[in-house]
């Protein structure tokens, strides 16, 4: 009976909630991958976009009222949501609503994360939620938000912040908090120079995931108050949370308690915010047992499904064999007399004869010519790789045309190849 009561409680709580996804950022550390798209719209995992993970978490958790705030070069993100997320049923008050910056209140675009909420207060109020779940649209993870909401309600919190353990040496890039025995937050510092370690764990800090639950009326009051503060930068981490922690009931929620299907027993959460991190997270999916389980029927990742034929591998001659080893190959791909090893190919990639691709991430609609050698590269959407090209073998040579990371990953885009693309990515 207790389990049934919990399910009903979670269902009622999620039905009375609305999710607000902040998806307006560029993600400049991804370099040229975000020249023409916002970070949440960057392809990931062979067939998805990064924002699909936050959206899927909402739907799978029972939160079916979702607003997505967009700003920076949002056309591909808007197109993706329109094509892939129209299955929610408005007759049951389910929706994914796009909320582009449109100067609804003042003649300014979104000035910060709290300002994005402030500028959409009339829309949020019109849905009359009890709770508002604030999410970023630029992280890869699987999380049951209903458990986060239940924790928030059980503790009679004004605000709850989802948190994760991170190594102390990398904690300076996060909001770092301290908590008491009841997990009430006692201090919070945004990107501190000297992060405070977790008591008893000197090598780790408790970091904010940028996932928040608010009592709706409390959130509305606080973003209005923050808007009226002349010295505020209108940011949750920099301004709102430090103000609230000593004054109101602000609690932390451990990601361990709501992470879904941990393949390795460790909560999976990735900020694929650099080219190195993006390459590594994608290639992890090709491993025998990847850290992120995409084969979970109980918690699917939803996305726009193109109607494509299955991947095809042709030619079986000794010097011309179409094959992919320890790799993921998406629909619409043709591997023609070439070898792909330890790589991830998105949809509609064609690899022509006598080529070799290793340890690489190839985004959709790429045409790889004959006799090409690629190793440790990320190839952006719509590239045409000319016959005989080599990349990923000589960093000094690659840097003359492409972007090469400190770890030696080469990023290739159409513009770097002298190819102009005139349509949405």
From TrEMBL:
Question: Can you tell me which residues bind alpha-D-glucose 1-phosphate?
Answer: 110, 175, 190-191, 208
Task: Check the record and name the Pfam families matching this protein.
Answer: Hexapep_GlmU, NTP_transferase
Glucose-1-phosphate adenylyltransferase/Bifunctional protein GlmU-like C-terminal hexapeptide domain: from which residue to which, for each copy? Answer: 309-412
Nucleotidyl transferase domain: which residues?
19-286
Q: In which pathway does it act?
A: Glycan biosynthesis; glycogen biosynthesis
Against PROSITE patterns, the record matches this protein to:
ADP_GLC_PYROPHOSPH_1, ADP_GLC_PYROPHOSPH_3
Q: Which InterPro entries match?
A: ADP-Glc_PPase (IPR011831), ADP_Glu_pyroP_CS (IPR005836), GlgC_bac (IPR023049), GlmU/GlgC-like_hexapep (IPR056818), NTP_transferase_dom (IPR005835), Nucleotide-diphossugar_trans (IPR029044), Trimer_LpxA-like_sf (IPR011004)
- Name the Gene Ontology molecular function terms of this record: ATP binding; glucose-1-phosphate adenylyltransferase activity
Catalyses:
alpha-D-glucose 1-phosphate + ATP + H(+) = ADP-alpha-D-glucose + diphosphate
Report keywords, A-Z. ATP-binding, Carbohydrate metabolism, Glycogen biosynthesis, Glycogen metabolism, Nucleotide-binding, Nucleotidyltransferase, Transferase
In this chain, the site described as Could play a key role in the communication between the regulatory and the substrate sites is at 71, 109
Q: Which GO terms describe its biological process?
A: glycogen biosynthetic process
Q: What is its EC number?
A: 2.7.7.27
What CDD domains is this protein classified in? ADP_Glucose_PP, LbH_G1P_AT_C
Q: What does this protein do?
A: Involved in the biosynthesis of ADP-glucose, a building block required for the elongation reactions to produce glycogen. Catalyzes the reaction between ATP and alpha-D-glucose 1-phosphate (G1P) to produce pyrophosphate and ADP-Glc.
Q: How does it assemble?
A: Homotetramer.
**Record family assignment:** Belongs to the bacterial/plant glucose-1-phosphate adenylyltransferase family.
State the protein's name: Glucose-1-phosphate adenylyltransferase
Q: What is the lineage of its organism?
A: Bacteria, Pseudomonadati, Pseudomonadota, Betaproteobacteria, Nitrosomonadales
Q: Which gene encodes it?
A: glgC
